[in-house]
Amino acid sequence: MNCVSARGRVTLDMMPFMSVEGTVVLLDMYDEHSNPETGFINFGIAENCLCEEIICKKVQGSLAFNPGTQYYYAYGGKLNFRNALSDFLSERLAKGKPLDPEKIVVTSGVGAAIDLIAHMFADSGDCFLTLTPFYSAIEMDVGLRSGVKVYHIHRPDHDTNTLKAFSFDEELLERGYQEALDKGHNVKGIFVINPGNPTGKLLNRDELVIASKFAQRHDIHVIFDEIYALSVFGDDAEFTSALSIPELLNNDKSHVLWGFSKDFGISGVRCGVVYTNSAEYLEGTSKLTYFGGVPSVIQDALARVISDKDWLDNVYFPTNYRRLKESHSYMEKRLTSLGITCHAAKSGFFIYANLSKYMKEQTEAEEMKLYNELKAAKLYMIPGSALRGRDYGWFRITFTSQKNTVELGLQRLEGVLKKRS
Amino acid sequence: MNCVSARGRVTLDMMPFMSVEGTVVLLDMYDEHSNPETGFINFGIAENCLCEEIICKKVQGSLAFNPGTQYYYAYGGKLNFRNALSDFLSERLAKGKPLDPEKIVVTSGVGAAIDLIAHMFADSGDCFLTLTPFYSAIEMDVGLRSGVKVYHIHRPDHDTNTLKAFSFDEELLERGYQEALDKGHNVKGIFVINPGNPTGKLLNRDELVIASKFAQRHDIHVIFDEIYALSVFGDDAEFTSALSIPELLNNDKSHVLWGFSKDFGISGVRCGVVYTNSAEYLEGTSKLTYFGGVPSVIQDALARVISDKDWLDNVYFPTNYRRLKESHSYMEKRLTSLGITCHAAKSGFFIYANLSKYMKEQTEAEEMKLYNELKAAKLYMIPGSALRGRDYGWFRITFTSQKNTVELGLQRLEGVLKKRS
Q1: B347 and A CB contact within 8 Å
Q2: Is domain A6-54+312-420 annotated with CATH 3.90.1150.10?
Q3: pLDDT per residue over B341-375, tens digit each?
C-alpha cells in the first residue's frame, strides 16, 4: 500500500546517475584477492587512496573516546574544533586572513551542508544555477530532501580541448540567469565549484569577484564549493580561495564549503565545513545538525589532525602532493599515448579526458554506448553527459586508486578502445 | 536582510523548551573544579553517567580507523553492523524471535530516525498523535525540518499518583483520534513510547496490540519508541518490546526505534536504529542518510561492542543495572523524605515526581514559578508542563549523574523547597 508523503515520493523518484551506478560499483568492487576477475575497477568515485597508511595511522591515533566525547555536545561544531578549523583554513585557504570560528558550521559531509542550504534558503521548486559540466550530485544534494532544482548554464559552442573553455564572464552568468527567469524559475543562488569538478579548472580572483557581484546584483546566494582546495598539486597551479578575499564574504549570501572527504581522503568520517556570514544559516543549522551531527569523538580527532602542523607540513601534504602528481602524470601519459586529449589541470582526483575519437559521432547515445562497453569490461568512469556536459565523448577518470588498480583499469580501457579503433 | 525560505523560517521559529533551556544549562554546567558554585546541576538532560569508565574503555578499544572505514560506505547501515544489530536486538528485545538485517536502518540518533519518518510519511502540516505527558522533543523531531505537528491526547482527569494512570485503552485512542480529526488535522500516525518518558511506565502486550490495531484500523503509522528498552532495572519490572510480537510488525506502517544514546549512555556517537517493514522507508533512508550517516568507523566500533556477549552479560549490563537501581533507590528515598510522591517505575533515567505540595496551587504558572526558582538555584529539572502534562507540579528528575552531583542537586532542591514549606 502506498503510504508515502508527496515529498517522500520526490526522494524515492530521484535516481541520479552517479548514485545509482556508484552503488552498483561499490557492491562489486575489484579486490585482488576476493574479487579479481569480475570486480569493478573504480575510475569513477572520487576517492584518494594514495596516502592510506599515513592518514589511517594519524586518525586512529587521534581518536579518544572519553567522558568528553561520550555525551551530548554541539552537533554543528564544538568550540575546540571550530577554533582549530578557523586556524587551519585561515592559514591554508585564506592566505593568512583571519577567520571567525563563530561563522563555522560542521556538517555530516559537504552534501549535507548543501542540503541545509537548500532547506534554509529555498523552497521546493526553487532553483540554483551552475555552469556545466559540473559535479552533478549537487542536484541530489539540493533535490533529494528539499525538492530544489538546479538550472544548468551551458557555455556556447567552444573548443573544450583547452581549459580556458571553462572560464566564465559576467555575460555568461547574466545570460544564464535571464534564461532561467524566462523559463519561470525562481533563482535562489549559484554554485561556483573551485577547483572545478570534473575539469580541475582553477578560477582566478577576477572570476570569483564576477560571481560574487553577479549574485549581489540579483540578491541571490553564491556558494563557493572548495572541497578540493588542498588537492592542488601542480608546481605552477595557483588556487584562490574565496576565503582569501574578504570583500566576497561580508554579506549574508556568500557561503564557502570545504570538507575532509577529499583533501584528507577520509569520506568515511562524513565531515563538511561551512564558512558563512548568515546568522540564519548558523542558527538554523545549530538546530538541524541534531539530525546529522559529526560525532563528538570525530570532531575532537579531526581537531587534533589539523592542529598538528608538523605532521601536515612535513608528512601528510608533501607526500600527498607528490603522490597525486605522480599518479596524475602516469595516467595522463598513458591516456595521451592512446591519442586521448587530457585537460592540463593539476588539481583534484581526476582527468577530464576526451575519448570522442573512439566514438562514431559526438552524441549522448554514442557516449553512453561507450560507457556501457566500459562498464561491461568492469571499468567504471563517469561520462560527461552525467555531469551535464554537452561536448559528448568526455569522461571523468579518477587517477587516485592504488597503483596496481590504476594499471589494471588502464588495461581494461585499452582493451575496450582497441576494439573500437 | 531576510533571505530565509518559508520552511527555513519554521526551523528558526521553533524554540522548544527542552532545547532552549538545555542549551543554557549545557553552556554552564557544574564542574567540581572549574565551575563549582554557579554551574548547573543537571537533573534534566537524560544522560546516564553511571558507567563512564566501563563504556569509554570498551568503545575506545573498538575504534579502528583503517582502509575499511576510511571511505564511502553504506551510510544507513553497513552489513556487518546490521547483522550485529539484528542478533543483538533479537536476543535482548525480541525474546529470541529472529529479526531481518534487511529491515534495519541506522540513523544519526533516534531524533533523526523520527525526522526521516516525518519526511517520508507526512507532509508539512500533517500530524502524529501522542499520549501525554511525553518526551516532547518529538515535536521538534517531526517539526523542525518537516513542519509536521504533534496532537496531544490528554487523559481525562485521574489520579496521576499511581502509574496505572498512564495506561491506555482503545477508547482513549479513538477519542483522541476523533478529536484530532474534528480539529481538522490530517493524522498520519501515533507514537507509543515504551518504557514511558517521563513516567517510566512499562506497557504490556495488550496495550501494544491495542495501539497496533488502532493504527491499522485507521491506516496510520505506529511508531514504537523503545530507546530505554535495556534500561529497565527493577527485579519485577517486565519490559515487552514490539519486536517480540511478530504480528505487530507484519505490515508497512509499524516501526520500532532503539538507539545507543540511552542504553549504552553514549549520546555523543549519534546512533539510532529503526526496524521496519516499509520498503519506502528503507529505500528513502538509504538515500537520505547521505546527509547524516553514522560514520563508518563508529558503525564498526558499535558492531564490536554489541557482539561481545561476554562483556555485555558479565560486565556492562549487570553493572549498569546495579548502578541504576542504587541511584534510583537513593534518589527516591531522598525525595520521599521530602514528602514528594514518586512513581514506582523501575526504568529509564528519571523519576517523575509530584512536587505540588510545595506549590500554592496546581497551575502551570505556579509550576513555572517553582521551575524558575530551581533554575535560579542552578538546578535544572524538567517541569511536567514542558512534557505536555496537565497535572501541574510534576517534574522529571534525572538520577543518573555521578553520586556527588546527585547529592549536591538534592541539597539545592531541599534548599528551594524549604523556603516554600
Answers
A1: no
A2: yes
A3: 998 789 999 999 999 999 999 999 999 999 999 99
